[in-house]
Amino acid sequence: MLGRYSLYAVLAATLAALTCVGTNALVIQQAPVKVMSTIEARIAKAAGEWNACYHNQEYGPRAEAARRANPDSIISSMAYDLSDGPVRVSGKTWPRYWSISLYQQNSNNFFVRNDLELGDANFDFVLALEDHDTSELAGETIRSPTAKGIMLVRRFAADADDMPGIVANQEQMFCGPA
Question: Domains (ranges, CATH) in the chain?
Answer without folding.
Answer: 1-178 (2.60.40)
